[in-house]
Write a structure and sequence with these properties.
35% of the residues lie in helices and 24% in strands. The protein is α/β, with parallel strands linked by helices. It is globular and about 60 Å long.
């Protein structure tokens, strides 16, 4: 949408950039970024089994969490979109000056906590992406928990492979990052990490979002990783 410093010839430049495969729609930003994007999203049909993905690219000067707060419009937009049913928010951060070659291969991993509604919604979204290498992944705190989830997945889970890894000390952040780096270490693979995110109203919202916020902060500047948040509205 138009803003100060916007290239007035951005539409034809985008058409050439995309090898003439897509057109750029310029939104009316007079009401603000968030309202303009919401207006566009509301025009698109969606239901329980369909999704709208909003991809939010952000250019950062350095890999610091403080940089996030220099993009207040993007931060507010992401928070507002997470409360919108049927909308998935995909973060695509880019570091200024980073020289990353385009990926040759994309894989999808769905971070699941069990055979539950929020995890299954994230799996359903992942399957709509149509990427062949799509798997669920879980980090169990002990062998007993891992065995239980494997049995539940075989009996009631969706028909995508489940990978189990260990989460010592009940911290999934370190093993998750190590797992992702094993996938991207060739420099040619990009991972779309699909993460279910509980959305609740009122004072309990911050409590339920602690895990999601922790993982977002941890993976924000992880090379070759795109984090897609699939909100699940928890009624209270």
């Amino acid at each position: 949408m138009p803003a100060r410093g916007t290239d007035p010839g951005i539409k034809p430049r985008w058409f050439r950039f995309s090898d003439e495969r897509s057109h750029l729609e310029v939104l009316d930003g007079s009401l603000g970024v968030t309202e303009a994007v919401l207006e566009q999203v509301w025009r698109l049909p969606r239901g329980e089994s369909s999704f709208v993905t909003v991809v939010i690219p952000e250019l950062f000067r350095r890999p610091s969490l403080l940089e996030v707060f220099t993009h207040p419009r993007a931060l507010l937009l992401k928070l507002r979109l997470l409360a919108e049913p049927g909308v998935v928010v995909a973060d695509v951060p880019v570091l200024a000056g980073a020289d990353e070659a385009p990926p040759e291969r994309t894989v999808v991993r769905v971070l699941v906590s069990g055979v539950n509604a929020s995890s299954m919604r994230a799996v359903n979204y992942a399957r709509t992406l149509g990427i062949k290498d799509t798997r669920a992944v879980n980090f169990a705190i002990d062998e007993e928990e891992g065995a239980r989830l494997r049995r539940e997945w075989a009996a009631h889970g969706p028909r995508i492979p489940l990978e189990l890894d260990d989460a010592p000390y009940r911290d999934i952040g370190t093993p998750l990052r190590a797992y992702l780096r094993r996938l991207t270490e060739d420099g040619r693979t990009e991972v779309v990490l699909v993460m279910p995110e509980l959305v609740v109203r009122g004072l309990s919202r911050a409590l339920h979002n602690q895990k999601a916020l922790y993982l977002k902060r941890l993976l924000l500047f992880e090379p070759h990783v795109i984090l897609a948040s699939v909100p699940y509205q928890l009624l209270r």
